[in-house]
TrEMBL record:
Presence of the UniProt keyword Heme in the record: no
Entry-linked PANTHER family: ARSENICAL PUMP-DRIVING ATPASE ARSENITE-TRANSLOCATING ATPASE (PTHR10803), ATPASE GET3 (PTHR10803:SF3)
Protein family membership: Belongs to the arsA ATPase family.
InterPro entries named in the record: ArsA/GET3_ATPase-like, ATPase_ArsA/GET3, P-loop_NTPase
Entry-linked SUPFAM superfamilies: P-loop containing nucleoside triphosphate hydrolases
Gene3D superfamilies: P-loop containing nucleotide triphosphate hydrolases
Cell membrane listed as a keyword: no
GO molecular function: ATP binding; ATP hydrolysis activity
Record-given protein name: Arsenite efflux ATP-binding protein ArsA
Keyword set, alphabetical order: ATP-binding, Nucleotide-binding
Length: 308
């Protein structure tokens, strides 16, 4: 098992239940574990029946948790930029830039970018502190886009840095300063720091081979098809998918005709899963009689003993 585990899947398949139970299993196995919720629904607090929130808190022996709020992180990031601008931009244009920054908070992609920055921060700062970092992720499509952000943002930052270097050189030449001395420019420092943080996190996850994915799915057509696509996409990033969790499997002794038919269809899809994912270890979790709560989580955690 890799140190950093992303648990993903189609919306509604039970990722948070599986992430929480797996985290409990790791903690009970003696591994210092951090559970990170990136799903906007943040059901982690509901499962453990306690407030988790924006800062890392201890919830059980060997188990800490945090819930990332993309809107909060986006606003915090923009406010930090505003603070930096006051020191480096003429007051005449600060008001207009501030207005544009306020609009940027709600622009497409801003929350994903802020989420990625927070995930990067956690990986960079906590990878040596914990034996296991488990990310309960948003639905599959959002998670895949998060993984593509380093490449996209890296290219964008390189472009911004090139333009900034050119602007600083022209400014210094116009003011009889050394145009090659760029190290003191605060904007370049900010851009370089962000690029370095992204590259460091990517090196930890990809180059050091510390990242893997576990997908959660139900024995239904749409989750199966989405998982097939996601596994193929991750192959392009050389990210392993060694395990799958098939969640909410019906009991065998169904009596009612409706549920007998549902069970027959489920068997068909379970066979399809076994054939389509023959290279992956498949963990089967039963449909619970009750909503997942703290009192049941240890019972579900036992199903993960075959992962290690």
């Amino acid at each position: 098992m890799k140190k950093i585990v992303f648990i993903g899947g189609k919306g509604g398949v039970g990722k948070t239940t599986c992430s929480s139970a797996f985290a409990v299993y790791c903690a009970k196995a003696g591994k210092k574990t951090l559970l990170v919720s990136t799903d906007p629904a943040h059901s982690t607090s509901d499962i453990f029946e306690r407030t988790i929130g924006l800062e890392i808190v201890n919830i059980r022996e060997n188990l800490d948790a945090i819930e990332i709020d993309a809107e909060f992180e986006s606003t915090k990031y923009i406010n930090k930029i505003k603070g930096n601008l006051k020191n480096i931009v003429s007051p005449v244009i600060v008001e207009e830039i501030t207005r544009q920054l306020d609009a940027a908070i709600v622009s497409p992609g801003s929350h994903e970018s802020a989420m990625f920055d927070k995930m990067t921060e956690i990986i960079n700062e906590k990878v040596d502190e914990y034996d296991q970092i488990i990310f309960d992720t948003a639905p599959t499509g959002h998670t895949i886009r998060l993984l593509s952000l380093p490449e996209m943002l890296g290219t964008w930052i390189d472009s911004l840095m090139a333009k900034r270097r050119k602007a600083v050189k022209l400014f210094k030449m116009a003011n009889s300063q050394d145009p090659n001395k760029l190290d003191d420019d605060p904007i370049l420092k900010i851009l370089m720091r962000r690029k370095n943080n992204m590259e460091k996190a990517r090196n930890i996850m990809i180059d050091d081979q510390k990242l893997q994915f576990i997908f959660v799915l139900n024995a239904e057509k749409l989750p199966i098809e989405e998982t097939k696509k996601a596994v193929n996409i991750l192959k392009k990033y050389n990210i392993p998918v060694n395990e799958l969790i098939v969640n909410r499997i019906l009991p065998e002794d169904m009596k009612d005709d409706f549920w007998k038919n549902k069970k027959g269809l489920e068997r068909k899809y379970l066979n399809e899963i076994s054939e389509a994912f023959s290279n992956q270890k498949i963990i089967r979790l039963p449909l619970l009689q009750n909503d997942m709560r703290a009192q049941y989580i240890d019972e579900v955690a036992e199903y993960f003993k075959d992962i290690y």
